[in-house]
Known about the structure:
Elements: H1 18-25, E1 32-35, H2 42-50, E2 54-59, H3 62-67, H4 69-74, E3 79-83, H5 89-94, E4 101-107, H6 112-116, H7 141-147, H8 150-161, H9 166-177, H10 185-196, H11 208-219, H12 221-235, E5 236-246, H13 249-262, E6 284-286, H14 296-301, E7 309-315, H15 337-352
Parallel strand pairs: 1-2, 1-4, 2-3, 4-5
Antiparallel strand pairs: 5-7, 6-7
Amino acid sequence: MPSADGEQDAPRHVPVMLREVLEYLAPGDGEVHVDATFGAGGYARAILQAADVRLFGIDRDPTAIAGGKALAARYSGRLVLLHGRFSEMEALLAQHGVGAVDGVVMDLGVSSMQLDEAERGFSFMHDGPLDMRMGTEGISAAEVVNTFREEDIADILKTYGEERRARPIARAIVRRRKERPFMTTFDLVEVVEQVLGRPRAGKKHPATRTFQALRIFVNRELEEVARGLLAAERLLKPGGRLVVVSFHSLEDRIVKQFFKTRTGRGEAQSRRLPHEPEPPAPSFEDLAPGGVAPSDEEVASNPRARSARLRAGRRTSAPAMMQLPALPRVRVGMGAGDAAAAARSATARCRRGDGRSSGRRRRR
């Protein structure tokens, strides 16, 4: 289907709250913007079509950067793709001589593209290696469930997945791995279903919170969100706009707290003692008090939008506050190095086809 500028190919996924993102980001001709979570390029494409801007697209996933090359070629000189974490946006842009920008958009969490690729191990709906890493570095989800202590796995599921039955699930994971290691996503789904029951029509899949928790832990997503917000605060010019779309309560809580402190809503004049110093001047003006939810029409046409929340602010001329938002944390005592190595070996065998999975075939 042709787009507004005559392009024939559509983005590989439907960008959530695209109309609202463009409304609050308000790109203008001659400006510099950052799509801090490039993904499949849905926001980037719309921003480039909306105004004659220079856009930097950042993604820690090398497959996303590779997939965006055609779009970058089409907008040669206007779209620059950068491989890295969005918390590193200042250093990434400095390599191109850019020290300040007019807008930053962040679409948090896992992308539709990653969920749809079974080999990435993000989805409980597709069988594939139990990986969940957005990049290529760090430990995988398989290493967590195969080597971490039961109490640490339970803490991860409770803290990052808000899973009420975290301890029974962790107990079942440890019991299962004594028989054979976890290698695939369906290995883990099977154990979760043994504890919580099979999926029911119209209800959230029982493995949703477990997969969310492991993904957040493996990728250190909440810390990345917090540091990304600080980087955007430092990078934005006075008058620059920051737009953030989050998809679950932990992310949104961090973004909400960030804008609360940065707009001065977290400081009550009457609660300060006379000798206490004045609070720092607000570094943002809140453009969307209370946040913005997707329309009923969008949720009906794109169910993945149902949990989205957009928050936005306009940068003032006040200095960046630098204070990192409070984060939920889990302190883990990882398994011994040889156990982790064994998990890597098991995962490698699975990818070669040597390992044994549960043998249970899913009807999806």
